[in-house]
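Input/output pair, single chain:
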Amino acid sequence: MKKFNFYFFLVLSIVVAMSSCKKEEDDDDNNNNNNEPTYEFKDQVLQGEISGVAWEFKAGKYELDYWDSTEYSVDLYDTTGAENFTTVCDVWTGDFDYNIMFSCPQDTGLYELGWGSQSITLVDWTADPVLNIVLTEGALHIISKTDSTLTGEIDAASDNESYINGYFTISLCQ
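Output:
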């Protein structure tokens, strides 16, 4: 009888484990609609909200990433900074109330956001302490690059108070 109970519970455990794995796969398929994109780029200048405050792209810069020479470090601002700086290359991100920053590959292409891969950070410098809102839902599309400019588009969100969508063109700083 003890052998029967052992084998019965062993078989029962295997059946339960196998059926629960199938259910998770079915749920994933239903939630993602067969791996269709969860982003849609709008044909507008990059804009949105950071911590519930309206934000619109005005200027930005990119340069070789300090930590990874195969990537660019990108900073996007909602003001030109012309009243305080000679060029956008002189700007330090903390000189604004809000900005967007990320690193990206130097190659053109579509990069889906996610933990452990591509992400975008919205920075709220007015918060105490400074608030970094990491966006991992959506995508970054690097459309083109020349010797002096980088053009891309973003559709990314954290929640209803922190999201961005639209295109940008920024200058290379060396």
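Residues 8-12, 15-32 have pLDDT under 50 and may be disordered. The first helix runs from residue 2 to 32.
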